[in-house]
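Handout, page 2. Input:
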Amino acid sequence: MNQLAGDMLVTVLNIDAEIKIRTNRLTEMERSAEDPMEPWLNEARVILREDVARLRLRREEQLRKLDAVLAGRTGNSARSSKHVLFG
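Output:
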């Protein structure tokens, strides 16, 4: 794997870690739905869901770029168009 592909893969893995952190936090918030600060929690949940959606789109973009780099090296796409990594 060349340096560019390696760097892109590291970026994807970092994004996956951010997604995992946010989904874990969202799960914690869902468990505490009876909390008296619920209006604040609802707003925080919305923000976290939006963050996760944005990060998933960013991950897909990075994976498409990685596909292009790998396809350029091998002459064909090394991965399918659907990627599932860590959620």
